[in-house]
Amino acid sequence: MAEEREKANQEEEYLYRSAGIRERHGRIPLWLQLVVVVLLVWSLYYMLEFWNAG
Amino acid sequence: MGLLLSIKFHNPEFLGSLPGWTFGRLRPVHVNGVIFGSFTTTFLGLLYYYVPRLCGVRMYKEEWGWWLLWLWNGFIFIGSISFMMGYNSGLEAAEYEWPLNILRFVVLGLVGVQVVGTIFQRKERRFYVAMWYTVAALIWTLMNLILGGAVLKYAEQVNGVNSAALHGLYIHYVVGLWLTPAGLAIIYYFLPTSTKNPLYSHRLSLLGFWTLAFFYPFVGIHHYMYSPIPHWNQVIAVVTSMALIIPVWAVIVNWFGTVSGRWGPVLGGLDSDSYAAKFLLLGAVYYLLGCFQGSTEALFRLQQLTHFNDFVIAHSHLTVFGAMVNWVIGGLYYVWPRVTERKLWSSRLASWHLWLTIAGFTVMALGLTAQGFIQGSMLEYGANFVDTIKEMKPWWVTRTLAGATMDVGLLLLLIECYQTARQGELFQEEGSSTAGSEDEAIRSVPKRGWLENPPTVALVAGFGFFMLAVLVQGIIPFLSPGTRVTTVEDVVTKKQIHVADYTPLELRGRHVYIREGCWYCHSQYVRPVTGESQRWGPVSQTGEYAYDHPHLFSTRRIGPDLTRVGRKYGDDWHIAHHWKPREIVPDTIMPSFPWLFEPVKGQALPQLNEDGKALVAYIQRLGTSIGDWREGFASTRVTTGLALNPSPETRDELFALGKAVYDRRCIGCHGAKGDGNGPSAVWLDPRPRDFTRGIFKFRSTAGKDSLPTDADLFLTVTHGLWGTAMPSWQEISEHERLAVIQYVKTFSGRWQKEEIGQPIAITPEPPVTAASIENGKTSFHGKAICVMCHGAEGRGDGLLAAGLQDVWGHPVRPANFTLPAGAHGGVKLGHDGEHLLKTIMTGVGGTAMPPFQGQLTAAEVWDVVHYVQSLRVDAHVSELLAAGLSPTEENESRERIWASLSQAAGQGKIEKQVVQAATGSAMVLVEAGKR
């Protein structure tokens, strides 16, 4: 049920009438979510490691 | 304009004799022309198209648009002319003078008012992602224009390192907070409309916008990595630059997801919408590549390799032309038929435009990226800087051809637009599958979140994150006392000394330097990486920039870094170099500057005018605030070359190499025949050596004008001769130096007729004692009669000094032993004890300085050496005291200076009395200096 609701949610569209643009609510792919997490973790590590390295 | 500039890289004389057409004057025309001319003008035109449609109402104060059109074009046109006339504030991407800054601010401000007014009146319930970027871009940019046009220009306190830090932010705000969001607004609007597909993901839009808004404002300092800007600010810049991968990949996924299912019609389509989509998607590909390049080149290691070179230019072109300009072109393909109510005149022309762009720009981007790696690698491996420039020339020719290809494509676009408006078939908007009907049921969608409310976008993303970044990356470092020091560490003594402000003449020279755009090609900071401290001199210190307003760090090295160029060459070299650069450095691509000279009268040698003199004074000042560092920069104790005994086979090989080296590096001064009559020789004083007589100044072999050993010549070539046009060639390989020596020896028959004597024996240096110095002084004034030429105080002003000539009849000045390294009139090979001893023993070839071997014992010569060194030590200490050295540190400083000049002193063989007794004399020198 939750999956179906999520799928329906992703496929919901909004129409910007005067511009004629439709927009899906859509999703963020899992791999991109992983990229975000990895980059944020790396950023934290990098700052802690190199803050005073100069 | 870009094409003209590109040609200058491989044909530097192209358009070169006119002041307004040099690289330094045209570069801001090109950069600002692309940013504000081609991109922003088109963007504003498209904004007037999409903002009313996304808001469902007509543009607020629509009638302003006509006035703003003319004002904006006036700004672009007058601004370009002003650059060519030499009006330049010295801040990259913020070069316009104040009237033009105000004009630009007014136009963009009024556009902002129109956009905000339209938003207030909008009928559309939701606020589309293109509008988020539009609002944020205008707010960011209006604030950034205040930063660049007012704070950086007029806040005198924001100087040196702080000027660079804030300017780094400013530059990247132009790119990241104007071009980028404005470009993203364009593609977000025109991609769904041209592909007639729904936007793939609202969630990705949110992720892309908010991560861009948060991370981008912090990144700008990555333009000045490894500079004296606080390290923690650089770390933040690295981290946020890498974090920009998140918004970039988010929007890319969003756009390609949007086209999903429509690739066939888009790529195969021949109508204007299809070409709009093709250019938008092409821009998206370049955006992905360019941004990945931008993020990763911020990493410290990649900075070492790629910063200052064409890799950066590849990145800027990939993003600005590849992405932004192609996006507005895509928008234009969509809008033009609709506003002219005509169908696209020729799909074939559009296809040619597209493929010329792809072909030309791909070659350009790949070429520039490769160039960056090549030049960076060459420099990391210690190549001579000018050699790396020579290596780039064929690549630059390719870039010119690629640029010309792109320009043809743009010309086709112009023809397309013109013909479409005149001859295109009547255009009728087809019913769009995306448009839907007014009656279409819209499913319930999630309630509009606060993240996409106009006030949130404006206040949090627009104002909030911007101010946070300026606070962290600009204001906090500014408030840190460490960034506003006016002291530096003296390189020799490791003591703190004050940096002097610029003299009025130097300040005028700095103005000329800015006006002529020298800073577009020459950086002014030495990084602690890639051997730069071996190439150019000690690493830059914060205090050195205390009086630099604006800073002139620069982001590019088309020419060498100039941080430490002061006293590297004599004034005469600079004069010759500015008159006809390629006569003195055949491979240079520097333009000539005849307008820095007085009008030539008859056959007389051109003389610098007041601007020219000021510029040379400024150049000679650069890098001299950190003490007498050059004294120990190139060693006089090099020994390579002594053992060179080439076989007949290797001799031929060496000869060929030596000739090649000579033709590229020596011929300008010494001439093709080696007679010292190269094309630049007429400017130089002292004149370049005439090799045909086989007489050389500095030798280790006994006897007057004896032939030098290869090691002697190797030393001169490696070290250079201070105060003359002969630079140090330690940057070229040992092999090349040895080879050119073999070639130089062919100019004189002496090498075939005479045996080269054995080097004189160097007795070990005795300890430095007061008695030794006193004995040396006695000999200097008595037995050795040095005083007659060098003067009572060793200042080169003895009784005979004025009339001395060398064997060629050129005037010769005896050395002033008190001057720092590189000063005109000082010693030419340093105050190193062993070198001075050899010079006294063997004399100075071709001059009145005789060999004293046989007249003085070795012990007596060492005494004279110690006395001569003491003259420089006293002068050096007095210079430091005048620069604010604490008197309590004088003795320690004196000891360190002695250790830098004397091997014995360096081993601790120096009498305490020597260090302490001379205190008074240094103070006397300080007082004398004040008088």
Overview of this protein structure:
The complex is a heterodimer of chains A (54) and B (931). Chain A is elongated, with a radius of gyration of 19 Å. By secondary structure, chain A is an alpha+beta fold. Chain A has one domain (2-50). The longest helix of chain A has 21 residues, at 30-50. A two-stranded antiparallel ribbon of chain A has the order 1-2. Helices cover 57% and strands 15% of the residues of chain A. Chain B has a two-stranded antiparallel sheet with strand order 1-2. In chain B, strand 1 and strand 2 (496-498) form a beta hairpin. The model of chain B is unreliable at 432-444 (pLDDT under 50). The two termini of chain B are 54 Å apart. In chain B, helix 8 (231-243) runs antiparallel to helix 11 (272-297) and helix 9 runs antiparallel to helix 11 (272-297). Chain B has four domains: 2-427 and 454-479, Up-down Bundle (Cytochrome C Oxidase, Chain A); 496-627, Cytochrome c-like domain (Cytochrome Bc1 Complex, Chain D, domain 2), CATH 1.10.760; 648-753, Cytochrome c-like domain (Cytochrome Bc1 Complex, Chain D, domain 2), CATH 1.10.760; 770-930, no CATH class. Chain B has 34 helices and two strands. Helices cover 57% and strands 1% of the residues of chain B. With 931 residues, chain B is mainly alpha-helical. At the A-B interface, strand 1, strand 2 and helix 2 of A face helix 2, helix 6, helix 7, helix 8 and helix 9 of B.
List the helices and strands and how they pair.
The complex is a heterodimer of chains A (54) and B (931).
Chain A (H helix, E strand, L loop, with lengths): L1 H10 L1 E4 L4 E4 L5 H21 L4
Antiparallel strand pairs in A: 1-2
Chain B lengths: L1 H9 L12 H33 L8 H21 L13 H23 L8 H26 L5 H36 L6 H14 L15 H13 L1 H15 L3 H6 L3 H26 L2 H7 L3 H31 L6 H34 L4 H39 L30 H26 L7 E3 L6 E3 L5 H12 L16 H4 L35 H9 L1 H4 L25 H12 L26 H18 L1 H4 L39 H10 L14 H11 L5 H4 L16 H12 L5 H4 L42 H10 L15 H25 L7 H12 L1 H4 L5 H6 L1 H12 L1
Antiparallel strand pairs in B: 1-2
Helix pairs in contact in B: 1-15, 2-3, 2-4, 2-6, 2-13, 3-4, 4-5, 5-6, 5-7, 5-16, 6-11, 6-13, 6-16, 7-9, 7-16, 8-11, 9-11, 11-13, 11-14, 13-14, 14-15, 17-21, 22-25, 24-25, 27-30, 29-30, 30-31, 30-34
